[in-house]
Write a structure and sequence with these properties.
By secondary structure, the protein is an all-alpha fold. 77% of the residues lie in helices and 0% in strands. The mean pLDDT is 80.
């Protein structure tokens, strides 16, 4: 049992690191995508195009820097995590309140089959 718990912890840590790497590369990807769309002429030529970086990407970089260089103390980080969990719970609850069984009935079973396969 001890070996399987250790293996589970290693797999969990690897999965967390892999996900964080993907999230970190999101900001450079958005910048490259924006530049590519401008160069490819995707935007209307009548308007002057500029590189647009979403605000959440900027805030993400700021939060990574704050957390990496330990500018905030542990209690502040715990408070932020609590507020974050509360806000996410409220958002998920609001989504759930907007969902009715009629929407599921009208949609059919295909989305459930796809989610089951995934």
């Amino acid at each position: 049992v001890g070996a399987s718990n250790a293996l589970g912890e290693v797999v969990s840590n690897s999965a967390i690191i892999e996900k964080m790497i993907r999230v970190i590369f999101l900001v450079p990807f958005l910048i490259v995508l924006s530049i590519f769309l401008i160069k490819s002429g995707f935007h209307n030529k009548k308007e002057k195009s500029k590189v647009v970086i979403p605000w959440f990407a900027i805030f993400f970089i700021v939060v990574v820097a704050l957390n990496s260089f330990e500018f905030l103390n542990k209690s502040t980080i715990e408070t932020i995590n609590f507020i974050d969990t509360f806000a996410l719970t409220m958002a998920m609850s609001a989504l759930g309140m907007e969902t009715s069984f009629d929407k599921f009935r009208n949609t059919g079973m295909k989305p459930f089959y796809i989610s089951l396969i995934l």
